[in-house]
């Protein structure tokens, strides 16, 4: 949900993003061109498209294939006859891949970080305080320098008494030192436990104790949290903290951490540089990472990811991104503890690209922590590649459209006409989509919109959750970039399917990545069969080189969802329901555990309904609830504060605080009408549209335990917290 400043509260991915973060105040973004020029610009593309209109030729992207294991309908990538396992010969582990890439790109820029020039605290009109940063330009380390630092850090770990039989954990936000520590551990075959920086206290203790971590690498700001739980950490011996510029270490913490050896990251590097240790490199089947997911139920599970898994996904994704090479610049700001970002950065380093580190709070010129007059990360870096989760792309779209609505008149009409022309071109004519028409509108209308993300984005990777078709089209048109939408899980090391750059369809997640197969297995109970027409449907099962080794210390759960067939191929049963389009592309249409049977026998897919209702401008988050004793569903809905307060102002609604506004009957009726309209437009049945709703004023955040770090709702936790409210909705 968005707070009074229009910002997301406490999210590790879209943490305190403001809707206005994507727009520089006072700019018109090309909407006020000269009237005559605009009219000519409209006519020329229309005439050109009419003369050159031609249908895009169909392309077979996935090929049916016979595989072992449980019977089903299987598909492989249409461009490869055999599965890809490595990006090049000899790169069978992350340690080998990293070393070879560093030596190949020795003098090229690799990791970039912005120095904090100054900090100041400002007070908002409601009394809340915000920290503002003045950041400098990116300062770079080459591939050769990073390799040396990783080797020094690895040797320093050995000097501290760490060895390959013990594990190290990284508990930090994304930054250059995260990657250096990560690669350093692999130089000594050390398994890395990754933990979200936002993980709660109990989950953190569980993760560290279960994996018997002996060395913890963290941000300096995490030391206070560690000190508070020191008595409950059984195996920890060493704590290594990243020095944060301008942050002092609280001397009062030393007592609670006296049983540990506490060292700064730079001190460990210096220790290793003075006493270099020979590397002890891992095998491809060795466990590289135990990645703790912020799962939707109970304590997090540790997924065991091998070196071979990461390398296979890396090799596969490298074939998907067009013209990937050392001229590309990647903006890194999503959590490296999430498999999506980890896989993305592995691809980038393999290709010899530059990685500039930023944060969700400093991404754009008007981001929440950027001091006025200071460039945001995107403007300073000018990236060509970046990843995003749907929540961020949805907010970019909403912010630009809001700005267009505010301008009104000719500016709004011009934008709408151009947008429709470009939309028609993308969906009907290859020339119109990416030819002269695109260049005209890029110059006249979209140039300033693209400046939000630096102006040079040529390809975006999107994952973590389904991306709406509207938001995908918006990025295609206004940002001028294809969106590669991926589907995968931690258990598949992110590698399952990925849309190809020239696929202009929406709502699909592409063909299988060339490192594995995707098979649909019939689910008769839910009515999804591979014999269904016009497309085969069933549970999505992923097999191949990216399938991970299972759950740490949990053989029962591992045996439940992982299977090895008679040919030795490892498969993971996702619990998601999919269908294959005729061209071999996958569409995720449902999830087994989200399907509920109503009183009169109708089945309702909670996830499908939630995804549809999220298109309402009033909805920031939603959980649909249904049980078999009723013939209708209900919903808990976190409203968009900005949208709701704007409506209240226009409607003349008086209220003293946001909670009061959410409880008003007229507010509930307004939101109810909106989601009903959206639901009907999405062709939901009457029983699928919530008959009653409860507006929840407070955000659902990872810190609250109600959503995962990837911002997916934790259904059971929400049901428990709001059990009384759900009961009242059925009274």
TrEMBL record:
It comes from Cephalotus follicularis (Albany pitcher plant). The keyword Glycoprotein does not apply. InterPro entries: AMP-binding_CS (IPR020845), AMP-dep_synth/lig_dom (IPR000873), ANL_N_sf (IPR042099). SUPFAM superfamilies: Acetyl-CoA synthetase-like. It comes from the Eukaryota. This is AMP-binding domain-containing protein. GO terms for cellular component: endoplasmic reticulum; membrane. Pfam families: AMP-binding. Keywords: Membrane, Transmembrane, Transmembrane helix.
